[in-house]
Amino acid sequence: MSGKRKDFLRDRINYKEVLNPRQLEAVTTLEGPVIVIAGAGSGKTRTLVYRVAKLVESGVPPENILLLTFTRKAAAEMLERAAGLADERCQNVSGGTFHSLAHRVLRSHTDLLGFDSSFTILDRQDMEEVIQAIVKEIHPDRGSIRFPKKSTLASIFSKAVNMELSIESLMREEYDQFLEHVEHVVTVADLYMEYKKKNQVMDYDDLLIFFGQLLSNNEDIRAELSMRYRYVMVDEYQDTNGIQAEIVKWLASDHRNIMVVGDDSQSIYSFRGANYRNMFDFPGLFPEVKIIKLEQNYRSTQPILTLTNAIMDQASERYTKCLFTERKGGEKPMVVDARTDPEQAMFISQSVEGYLNQGLSLNDMAVLFRAAHHSFELELELMRREIPFVKYGGFKFMESAHIKDLLAHLRITVNRNDSISWGRVLRLIGNIGQKKSQSIIDWMREGRSMPWQVDQWPGAGKKDAGLKSLAELMKNLSRENIRPEKAVELVNRYYDPILKENFDDFPKRQKDLEQMIPMAGRYKRLRAFLDDLVLEPPSSSADVTLGPIKDCLTLSTVHSAKGLEWSVVFIIWVMEGYFPSFKAYSNMAAIEEERRLMYVAATRAKDRLIICYPGQEDLPMWRLTDTGYRNGLSSFIRALPMEVMEQRSSISSAGMPILIQPGRRRGRFYERGSLARPAGLSGIRTKEEDKGFSDKQQSGLRLGDRVKHPAFGKGVVSRFMGDNKIEVLFRDVGRKLLHLEHTTLEKL
């Protein structure tokens, strides 16, 4: 690039005009270690974007800059913004996640790890299936004693790795109820490691473990990466674990040009192994570090910030900071005792309608909660009022059986040693169970057979004709240079009869599978498509579609809402035993994380914050102890000065919510005969639902009716599927498809 071009770029951005003094200091400090303590809404993304632009303007080659974030989408958006500000070369900066960087490096050095370059990556459910198979093999009578479930074992193994603890130490600290089985658990862990090596698979944690080992044990690789990435930036540093902190140290060990950005007050992912202490330990790794605090908030009103500052004033350990804003005015956050869960749901729904009357859209509002099941009653009320919503948190899209079936067929085409995927694929075929599928897998491994030779298994009989169809599919999938979208189409075509046989709600699942085709079309190679689905999976079917969901109220767990903002935020079930969770009371560190979680929830609000709790409901902790306050309000809120909030009952003398007196709402959500359903959950009307109209007449049930099932408990009718089948949303077990002729439902 010519000097004239460089001068033009330097003059293009007037950093003093567009950044506040602390942001400017962070952007213009280019050499040496820097830690930026970025309070909620303080413009940390803006700071990172302008720093990328500043580095490129200063003559640093883009390929020598590394930006690590926790989603590749976030990195791509930052680099695109930087390119728009300064120079399109900013898009050539290396941006991605720790796991994607690790994956990229490991693919080039598999020979040092005892793996070959065709290794595949296990997702969490695959990991649990492997663990379950190992437990059954070494301890078939496990069900007769109190032994950890597969999900618990997976959590133990993952946490031990991420927290860099031995399994025994972790179990003594967090799983002492299983200590009598610690030797068996360690044995399962060892066999799990052997399985991964034998089958050429890695799990999510292995990517970081092996990457860290490569950096610490191989000076040449460390020097190569240090030369390639002369300037390193890390976003959301408070969410890193010990291994990631070590990786950061090694990457910057030579040049020490490292900037980490984070907020200790927003560290809420310890269940994934995140260590908020990394923020406090960073100056120890880099003693010459410069500490910069971003405290000016660009999101919320001052009354909201005053409350959130007060929440963190109670924290036992923190970087001292006080968020402030230049925004004028604003109302104090409201704390509302809604008395009961149904009244809380009614209050939220009526308040939403009131805000709609005032001109806000549903996209401007969100309801947040500590755990996914806390929104059950609210979902029912919203459906009754025909208010569309989308829910985030809880069950993940990629954990759905039909999606995992699709991906299993694709995975064995890139790694024929993936026995978990082989087992899943084979057991979909009639007449093939666990024992027979394992025999086929063993035969293929011993003879090093190719996937399209599966029908040549010597034990195949007349009832195993399905193997021929599978072999034909594998032959088509194994064609050289097959496009990922074509591969998905072929599997969908093969899988469709199986889908219809196994799932009553197959029309909805068909649409999910169809949405995977355009997603696969964004990739040139099948392996890259499969790797990305594990490295950064979509959390819902809505994430797979090409466009954003329009005009829906957001319901979300606080964990899923981090990084987002809305004009109006409701936080529900803010009471002892729920938020904070009663499970946290035995551990002070867990209580402190619950406090940070409350802070994250409250700082999502721009203009109005309503904290709600059903004060007359039973509290989980009161069933166990007689201590505590009887009104139920969360201790995090009770401890705040009275002047930072207003406390009200949800019911006025007129019997209406005191916050808003909504008029009768008319419009597309309320027109007679229309039903607005949860977006991304059941937002598409099918022919089966049209056929279901006669079912409504025969059963005497209507959408929104409360019912009781002898096994599943209380729920609400959420959809008519046709063929005398209905979908019911149950409080305790979620959504279930029921056949009206073979079930007993009591209308409440």
Account of the 3D structure:
- The chain has 748 residues and is an alpha/beta fold.
- It has 5 domains: 3-104 and 208-294, P-loop containing nucleotide triphosphate hydrolases (Rossmann fold, 3-Layer(aba) Sandwich), CATH 3.40.50.300; 120-199; 302-396 and 549-649, P-loop containing nucleotide triphosphate hydrolases (Rossmann fold, 3-Layer(aba) Sandwich); 397-538, PCRA, domain 4, CATH 1.10.486.10; 687-747, SH3 type barrels (Roll), CATH 2.30.30.
- Helices cover 44% and strands 13% of the residues.
- The protein contains 30 helices and 20 strands.
- The protein has a 7-stranded parallel beta sheet. Strands 3-2-6-7-1-8 form a 6-stranded parallel beta sheet, sandwiched between helices. The chain has a 5-stranded antiparallel beta sheet with strand order 19-18-17-16-20.
- α27 links the parallel β13 (566-571) and β14 (605-613).
- The protein is globular.
